[in-house]
Design a protein that fits this description.
Length: about 280
């Protein structure tokens, strides 16, 4: 199956796509009303608007340096996952999404990097916890949040993962305990974005890593903006060999063109090479 990830509600209805994901809240903090005929997506701890409105919400390291987009490594601002008031706001958004469609995708979950967060709330919470190991405590914070969110979602729960399948990396970086989260998440989504897809060996390598790391089904999301159609088709074939489904991000028209070409080629017996080749 093939799906689209979009900020334009009408694109989830295009017949070429089997599933549509609609951004109700994205990393800029932009919000939109949930829709009935798509899977509504919520960026959880990536939120530039919340960070600008209240900088005290932003995750900080042990030197007090904030995880904001003006610093190295960060493409957007990260809110501290320990902030209960902020989390309650996310739950309200999730409730609104569920009222429109029972399936929900949770995006941007986790701590920003291994050295975060050392804000006062996190320091006090860690000291008061049962954990001696900070990484274990961080993982418990994220797992608890996901559990609470999933309790509100009666349909399929999708969750986006940072594209690093190397053992222990997600745990150390973001507080993502895959084994614990697999009990709550129905399908994971792994964005494997490139600006061209001139080669695909790296895509196969990462996809195979997640195939080994997960028992829960995972889908692969490809970037479709201004990608050459032939390259996008080849990347799709590689992704299709490993992921349950393939989704296309942020340019539905290009994705639609690739799918139309693929289906026409299937009828005509045309292939685009070995999915495991980077040519």
């Amino acid at each position: 199956m093939y799906g689209v990830v979009t900020r334009n509600a009408e694109e989830v209805r295009w017949p070429e796509f089997d599933r549509g994901f609609y951004e109700v809240k994205d990393v800029t903090g932009r919000s939109a009303e949930p829709i009935e005929d798509g899977v509504n997506m919520v960026s959880c701890f990536g939120d530039n608007a919340a960070a600008d409105a209240d900088p005290s919400l932003v995750a900080v390291d042990d030197l007090g340096r904030p995880a904001t987009r003006d610093r190295t490594y960060f493409d957007w601002a990260y809110i501290c996952p320990s902030r209960q008031d902020y989390r309650e706001g996310l739950f309200d958004i999730i409730d609104d999404c569920v009222a429109a469609n029972e399936d929900v995708r949770l995006d941007d979950i986790g701590f920003p990097r291994a050295e975060y967060c050392r804000c006062g709330v996190c320091e006090e919470s860690f000291k008061a916890s049962e954990f001696d190991d900070r990484f274990e405590w961080r993982a418990s914070v994220i797992t608890e949040f996901v559990e609470e969110a999933v309790d509100r979602i009666p349909g399929t729960v999708y969750m986006t993962l940072y594209p690093d399948p190397y053992p222990g990396h997600l745990y150390e970086r973001a507080g993502i305990d895959l084994e614990a989260l697999e009990e709550h998440v129905d399908e994971f989504v792994v964005p494997l974005y490139d600006m061209a897809y001139e080669t695909t060996y790296w895509l196969e390598t990462i996809a195979r890593g997640f195939e080994s790391a997960l028992e829960t089904p995972f889908n692969i999301e490809l970037y479709a903006v201004n990608i050459d159609i032939d390259n996008l088709i080849h990347a799709t074939e590689v992704a299709d060999a490993y992921g349950k489904d393939v989704f296309f991000g942020y340019e539905a028209s290009n994705a639609r063109g690739a799918l139309r070409r693929m289906r026409a080629d299937e009828r005509d017996g045309v292939t685009h090479g070995d999915p495991e080749s980077d040519s």
